[in-house]
Specification:
118 residues, alpha+beta, 4 helices, globular, binds zinc ion
């Protein structure tokens, strides 16, 4: 189940979640590798649209896997950073026009990220 598609809608949802005060974690969904979010004490995947239970030992393993992925490709790492950055910008922006532009660029980055990850 690791070839699950990351949709544009998921990235937009993720951006919306960030705006609502959710936190992007340095962990990835075991199903689809989408970054996990934390809100109101719950960890969930916006792509699978379900809560993800992270066990203590599992969390360490997830971080290890993340490091391995980063080592594989610098491009992936920079794309990941770009996604986080755009999410941060959307969160801090008060302009509807700016948020629209940022959301569009987020979509593009996410598409590139998805292609590289396959
Ligand atoms: Zn997922």
């Amino acid at each position: 189940m690791s070839n699950k598609k990351i949709s544009d809608e998921s990235v937009i949802d993720a951006a919306r979640l960030l705006r609502k005060g959710a936190k992007m974690l340095s962990l990835y969904c075991p199903e689809c590798n989408f970054p996990l979010f934390e809100s109101e004490g719950k960890t969930f995947c916006p792509n699978c649209r379900r809560e993800v239970i992270i066990e203590v030992g599992k969390e360490e393993r997830a971080q290890k896997e993340e490091k391995e992925i980063v080592l594989e490709s610098d491009t992936l790492e920079s794309l990941e950073k770009a996604i986080v950055k755009v999410c941060e910008l959307i969160t801090s922006s008060n302009s509807a026009e700016e948020i629209k532009l940022l959301s569009e660029s987020l979509e593009k980055i996410a598409n590139a990220f998805e292609k590289l990850r396959k």
